[in-house]
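Q: What structure does this chain adopt?
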Amino acid sequence: MAKILDKQRYKCAMGAMSTVQAIERAIPVLHSGAGCAQKLSNSSGSSGYFSPNIFPCTSINEQDVVFGGEKKLHSTIENSLKVIDADLYVVLTGCTPEIVGDNVDEIVADFKDAEKPVIFASTPGFKGNNYQGHEWVINAIVEQFLNPTEKRIPGLVNIWADVPYQDEFWLGNLRELEKLVAELGLIPNTIFGYKRGIENIKKIPEAQFNLLVSPWVGLENVKRMQAKFGTPYLHYPTLPIGAFETSKFLRAVGSFAGVDQGEVEKLISEKEAYYYYYIERFADLFLETRVMSKKFSIVADAQYVLGITKFLVNDMGLFPAKQYIVDDTPKQYRNDIEGYFKDLNYDIKAAVEFGVDGYKIQQEIENTDYHGYPLLLGGYWEKDIAAKTNAHFLNVSWPVNERLVMNSYYVGYDGGLKLIEDIYSVVKTRFN
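A:
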């Protein structure tokens, strides 16, 4: 009997068009059926210089299935170069041309001498989801656009985190990671968002090292860059939220980069004093709000489940119920990720489940004893189970339908304070 998958939290691999769109003046060229871009572009903030409604698309049909869509792809790329003013053109494939067997790499190779770079990533939905598609786009940039160099810029750090647009806090989080790295005396380099783009992409091979802040997304990329460019990488799996994890993050990056330990500790002391000034000011609220939850669950991708779990346990002293990772994490990474949830303060260990069926997850939440009001952080689809269980609910992961996120972030000391604000703003509604 066929199974029904309810409330899936990811898109097909061609959703990586959002990764391309997040690079300023880069545009996806879609070799797919009509309508794919519209269906995959349901995140806020996706308009701008280029938007999914004007992405070039071959709009392949039944005739192209029989005779192939290679000529149509060639003309689409050719005309895109003529009429669209972009710095980078990235051809992405949908399911149909991959099944038919169009030689997309050969068509793209015809444009190797074009005035602007044209590259290709294979992104059919049957190969993976948009988290993996994101990695494949970065790999395409590394393999097809960038070349090894002997040049190294001391202190230059390429920063990689989670998937743009899938994580609606992506841009604010990246900018705060840049600030933290810069305060260590290093030079941050990111390729996504305002005034980054193609010039920052060209600097990638010149970096002192790559910094990956993610449990698994991007690990394939930094390993590939190490192999091609000889660039070492630091894999920091936990998104640093709040004082405890951010201080730990600064020590790890400072040590890897060879920054003077005394300077790192001086910076941390200043940051923690600032952070705990606010915590002390509102200590009465934290200690006397008896309707605050004792236990919590998070339904999100691995990055947010891990980062927020560590924050809620290590900084806020809450106890974890089961946590739910819904990004369809590849099996080879799951053991390591489970281990991260055993590295919490006070010898606390969090149970974690990798699942993609929202119905089953919500059934488990409904049957869990949270010893009071649950604290539930997740996607908009958790709103119903939050109401049913009388939970405090905060929409932090995709889909984000209850709030507008423009440049907000949860990374760092300020990000931790922001997350406390958001949680207690929900909790305080009990008094109204």
